[in-house]
Amino acid sequence: MSTTITTDAYASTTATHRIGLVGDTGVGKTTVATLVAARLAERTDVTVTGDAAEFVAASASADDALGIAWTIDDCPPGVEAIDARVDRLDTVFVVATPETLDSVERYARRARYHNVDCFLIVNRFRESARDDLRAFDGPTIAEHVCESADVSVAMADGQIPIFPEWTVEAVLIEALQPDRQPAEAALGALSNGTRSVVNVEVDDRDDAASLLDEFDTAGFPAAYFGCNCRCHDGHVLARRP
Predict the structure, then answer these.
(1) Which of these, 59, 106, 132, 157, has the minimum number of CB atoms within 10 Å of its CB?
(2) 42-74: per-residue pLDDT in tens?
(3) Could you say which DSSP state residue 134 is in?
(4) Pair (156, 116) in one structural domain
(5) CATH number of domain containing 183
(6) How far is CA 20 from each of CA 38, 76, 118, 119, 194, rounded to the nearest angstrom?
(7) Tens digits of per-residue pLDDT, 72-127?
(8) Taking a C-beta distance cutoff of 8 angstroms, is the pair 241, 219 a contact?
């Protein structure tokens, strides 16, 4: 995890995390980039490049995401997009459909070559594809974006698709810190400097509020991120300032 953080002891600092959405033509990469950028624009500063910039303008929102600004690069199709941007990417997300999983390894291999973190986002997901995804041997799946006839209609109209009761914040979680820790271990890792960002699963929002207070009292910026798991409510992430 290579989020760029400028530090001055424990003074207020600025951090930036830069992610690239890559994939073959026709997999819905711009749709996914638009969904991620739109959610970020509601929480924090975001800069959008590529085709997704036609749907989501750069924003400067009230901070609710660890004091981290984001750059979302909706990259052109092809693995060469990673080569061209490697000096300004912290995380790569390969977008693929269940039918195009064979293409993922080409992107993952190029990301590994450049030592850039790489995850998979499965677009146009259907329950019938779940077994194939379980057997998939490739990058960790960060998120599924379910197939919906409304998505193409919204994008064609220049509108951001809406998925009620669903969030793309798991993408942000994976980009910042995919490894989960118990709360006590996470606080210790920040205090002793062994991690710059920690991730704690929380069962419900009451647990999240308590943990946010604990990190704040210790001097670490923290924020809540929702996810689509059925076994817990979401995650609290915190970072060294």
Answers:
(1) 157
(2) 888 999 999 999 999 877 776 677 888 899 999
(3) H
(4) yes
(5) 3.30.110
(6) 15, 10, 10, 11, 26
(7) 999 999 999 999 999 999 999 999 999 999 999 999 999 999 999 999 999 999 99
(8) yes
Among all chains, which residue has been given the structure tokens 């980009």?
175
Which distant-in-sequence residues (6+ apart) come within 8 Å of 102 by Cβ? none
Residue 32's nearest CA partner among 51, 58, 47 is: 51
pTM confidence score? 0.89
Residues 6+ apart with CB under 8 A from 105: 138
Same structural domain for residues 138 and 224? no
Question: Who contacts 59 (Cβ-Cβ below 8 Å, separation ≥6)?
Answer: 40, 41, 45, 46
Do residues 145 and 114 lie in contact, with contact meaning Cβ atoms separated by under 8 Å?
A: no
What does the DSSP assignment read for 68-80? EEEEEEEPPSSTH
Q: 98-120: string of b/e by CB count within 10 Å (b at 16+)?
A: bebbebbeebbebbeeeebbbbb
Tell me: do 149 and 186 sit in the same domain.
Answer: no
> Hey, what amino acid is at 173?
I
> Distance between CA atoms of 192 and 25, rounded to whole angstroms?
45
- Determine the Cα–Cα distance for residues 65 and 216; give it in Å rounded to an integer: 13
Residue entry with tokens 């991690």: 195
The token duo for 16 is 């930036």
Asked whether the beta carbons of 18 and 73 are under 8 A apart, the reply is yes
Q: Same domain, yes or no, for 160 and 198?
A: no
